[in-house]
Design brief:
The protein is mainly beta and about 270 residues long. Helices cover about 10% and strands about 35% of the residues. It starts with a helix and ends with a strand. This is DUF1080 domain-containing protein.
Length: about 270
Amino acid sequence: MMKIKYILPIGLLALSAACATQHHSKNQNKNEWINLFNGRNLDNWIVKIHHHDVDVNFANTFRVKDGVIQVNYDGYGDFNEQYGHLYYKTPYSDYHVKLEYRFYGDLQKGAPYYTLRNSGLMFHSQDPRTMPKEQDWPISVEMQFLGGLSDGNPRPTGNMCSPGTDIVYKGKKLESHCLESTSKTYDGDQWVKAELIVHGDSLITHIINGDTVLQYSQPTIGGGVANRYDPRIKIDGKKLKQGFIALQSEGQPVEFKNIYLKDLSKK
């Protein structure tokens, strides 16, 4: 009887400790996600738009409305190649970022047709404060977002484009500027969930609505497309191990919400 009397409290204590540990672990995992957008304003974000100096949010292109980041051109005339990007203030190396986006409205007058229902998430980007006023695209890698055109033709999203960079796909350096994913086509103005997992200069994974749609590796500075950059920044062949993330504006109205990041470098 004495054995039973002492074993029960010890067993209960162990069970209680296990439950407490599990609860702490769940809370800790939940708290690992950093909310990059507060839903109220663009605090902690940096604007850079082609033809304008850094921090000039021309015509209020990037704004907050109803708890989302909205890209809008109602203050524009002709688009005039005013490609823009909204950068989070902190550069990262190894991380998992997730967000939701949706297209709406019409393509801005003067924007090239290829930008129709086209936006993206730039990553491993150069610091926007190193971009001259007339640099059009940041040296970066892009997780490209495309919307379907409701014409019955496939138009995958979660693709890869490489302004001023190179990547390796299936063991070979990719010669083209963009690479299609295996995603479904998403027509209309529906919200789409996108996730990007980046491991420094090694593996990069694109996820759309829970499905892995593209993987590649070894991003480096190189290639074309980015123009009028500072040559001291574009060091071809240099490994891209970290950089800034940015939301894109290139002529199509788009909205972003629920932007979270988990820093994997601390694991």
